[in-house]
Amino acid sequence: MKARAPFAAAAALSLLGAACGGSDGGGAALGRGPATTTTSSTVLVGQGAVVTRSGVVVPVISRAGNGWVVSTPCGRPAEITDGTPTPAAAVVLDPGHGGKDPGAVSPSGLQEEPVNLAVARYAKGALEAAGVSALLTRTGDYDMDLQPRADIARAVRAQAFVSIHHNADPDGPSLRPGTETYYQIGSTRSKRLSGLIYEEVVAALSRYPVAWVGDRDAGAKYRQGARGDYYAVLRLPGQIVSALAELAFITNPPEAELVARADVQQVEGEAVARGVLRYLRTEDPGSGFTEPYPRPSPPDRPPGSPPPPCTDPPL
Ligand SMILES: [Zn+2]
Question: What is the pTM of this model?
Answer without folding.
Answer: 0.89
